[in-house]
What does this fold into?
Amino acid sequence: MTRKKNSPASKPNPDEGIRLNRFIANAGVASRRDADELITAGKIKINGQVVTQLGTKVQLSDKVEYQGKILKAEKPQYVLLNKPKDFITTVEDPQNRKTVMKLVENACRERIYPVGRLDRHTTGLLLFTNDGTLAKKLTHPAYKIKKIYQVELDKPVTKQDFDKIIDGVELEDGKAIVDELAIVGEDNRILGIEIHIGKNRIVRRIFESLGYKVVRLDRVMFGPLTKKDLSRGKWRHLSPKEIVNLKNLKGK
It folds into this structure.
């Protein structure tokens, strides 16, 4: 049983370049707040011209100078993790629970951050990067980035509930629309679900609203990225081709 749900087109509106204060911070000169003070004080040049406007954006090809020295931003890094259970998606946790940052701490020297999140009990693909422009694009609603999950339920899904999910389930924060739904297990307890909306715990909440308990939830695809050759708890750097594919994603 497989059905698709079409969604209306939406025009993307991504930001180009990165903010100058972030570029300066990434170069290790100052914090973003202190970088703003350097900018307004006229101590930063872009391509030989003094810049004092906050919010100015630069491309990696621009020449940014401070005190006569050309600043170099951190090397862009793109790391893909196959997240195991019992790790939370946060940079720091005041309760000292295990975070996903521990799993990728040796991936690179640059500071990388998770793109979106997976809840503590959800496994599967999680991307990390210091490329803020790409991260914003991958989480921007206009791009409708495809995410595919394999869901195991505590009981077989009925045809009536299957059709309800396809038609869209009303949740407390609005209607949840899925792009595709398929039964992949013979006992109707394991399903594949494709979805692009990024609301918190959205897949679990869809099934819970119909009286099902999600026993296991695994993200098997994020955009064009898959778990091929990536064991649970392991990470790898994206290939140049994968990076290009992500940057070339178009809005639907």
About this structure: DSSP finds seven helices and 18 strands in the chain.
